[in-house]
């Protein structure tokens, strides 16, 4: 079966799941149902696509298939920002804050952090991507510990506001944020297209890429900036989903079985959409909202991550 046929099957499955999600138990209330469920589907398409896209690019430039962009600490920084707002200004400030302002603040600080991190680390001639990952892990742990310390000091009632930000949710997505997210993702992808031609060579590793004439540091810095922006947008839109990218990208490698990113990227985005729409159907129709989609994905993704580690150790 060809690559295009495999992507076509994924697209067909995604369309069928979306139609089922939009129409199941509608009971004739089409105006209300289509508008409400349409927002969820749009949020799933944006979030799933951004996470799959960014994770695939991140694994290509790091040449490692068990890493996700969350390793550089953006998820922890997002939680620190939410906790700091509640700690210093109270939960009402976070609840009543203009959604667009909150979105721009969260995305802006995460992208600024990533930009400063890359600027400082890539100043050195001998800096490499693994040094960046190591520093990212340290910053992520630092942000997480500071957020935990603040959460222990705030009022228990206000902690519930912070707790709601800890898990991804597609149930209360703001329409205004969807429009801003679409615009931001479109600009980021347009910028990425200038460097998309280098991805197949970058997947061979730094030495091969340099020997083949690729301006490695120049391209990698811009790819990391694209990854950071996409992760920041998806996290600020619905919340952190740690293992989704790891899960869908590794399934994509197994299913598509090619090194060409022109097939891998759409394949990963479609698998991500299938996983999120199918998962949301299970949460709503099987578990009747007794759990969240993020919990299911993190459980399956965490189990798959352990499998990858054991498989790599055995080989």
TrEMBL record:
Keyword set includes Transmembrane: yes
InterPro entries in the record: ABC_BtuC-like, ABC_transptr_permease_BtuC
Predominant cellular place of this UniProt entry's protein: membrane
Keywords, alphabetical: Cell membrane, Membrane, Transmembrane, Transmembrane helix, Transport
Top-level taxon in the UniProt lineage: Bacteria
Subcellular location: Cell membrane
UniProt keyword rRNA processing present: no
CDD domains recorded: TM_ABC_iron-siderophores_like (cd06550)
Membrane topology according to the record: Multi-pass membrane protein
Organism field: Paenibacillus spongiae
Family: Belongs to the binding-protein-dependent transport system permease family. FecCD subfamily.
Transmembrane segments: 6-29, 41-61, 67-89, 101-122, 128-154, 175-193, 223-251, 263-283, 289-310
Protein name according to UniProt: Iron chelate uptake ABC transporter family permease subunit
